[in-house]
Amino acid sequence: MLSQPYHLYVERTDATKNMARYYAMEITTTLFGEACLIRSWGRIGRRGQCMNHHFKREEDAVALFLMLTRQKRAKGHRPCSQRPH
User: Fold this and answer.
1) Rounded CA gap, 41 and 39, in Å?
2) Which pTM value belongs to this model?
3) Distant-in-sequence, close-in-space partners of 51: CB < 8 Å, separation ≥ 6
4) Residue 48 carries which DSSP code?
5) What domains lie within the chain, and their CATH numbers?
6) CB atoms < 10 A from the CB of 51, how many?
7) Which of 1, 6, 16, 55 suits a disulfide with 35, CB 3.0-4.6 Å?
8) Which residues contact 2 (CB under 8 A, 6 or more apart)?
9) Which residues pair with 35 in a beta bridge?
10) What's the pLDDT tens digit per position in 38-56?
11) Does residue 19 register a pLDDT over 60?
């Protein structure tokens, strides 16, 4: 069981470069009780790619989550008002 929810959805857009990207992450628990960091990314409005990382300890998943969050914000990704469905 996770101690708190971890969700992130950010976008990076630049009309001059025809750039419209999204990046989403969340940490969940698997059926076996392991922490799983689920990442998805791609062009806004399209199905993107997905990657899952499994960890025995929640702290390891949170460390990767925070590191990736810092990287995305440094590259210009910003939170948006609503996440697409």
Assistant:
1) 7
2) 0.85
3) 38, 39, 40
4) -
5) 6-79 (2.20.140.10)
6) 10
7) 55
8) 27, 28, 29, 35, 58
9) 29, 55
10) 999 999 999 999 999 999 9
11) yes
Q: How far apart are CA 28 and CA 47, in angstroms?
A: 21
Structure tokens at 77: 């990704």
> What does the alpha-carbon distance between residue 61 and residue 11 come to, in Å, rounded to a whole number?
22
Q: Quick one: tokens of 50? A: 């997905």
Pairwise CA distance, residues 76 & 59, whole Å: 26
Cα dist from 28 to 19, 20, 45, 67, whole Å: 30, 27, 24, 17
CA distances 58 to 2, 20, 21, 22, 37, Å, are: 7, 32, 28, 25, 9
